[in-house]
Design a protein that fits this description.
single chain, about 70 residues, two-stranded antiparallel sheet, globular
């Protein structure tokens, strides 16, 4: 099923995106914010990979991601 937002058709979430969202949810339960490093360690992946996915999730309006 696709969603329409601002005249754009969004692709459905991939299983990998769902994995990231689940990891973020789990980490957020114990912290006031979740760092890229935290997600990378939990998922056993590299930080640049996490940053790239967070940008995609942010573009979809699913996470608040601030690069600094």
């Amino acid at each position: 099923m696709t969603n329409i937002r601002d005249n754009q058709i969004e692709k459905p979430l991939t299983s990998v995106m769902e994995d990231y969202l689940e990891a973020i949810f789990d980490l957020d339960r114990n912290k006031s914010f979740v760092r890229v490093k935290d997600i990378a360690q939990k998922m056993d992946i590299k930080m640049p990979t996490v940053s790239s996915m967070l940008k995609s999730l942010k573009d979809r309006g699913l996470v608040n991601y601030e690069k600094y």
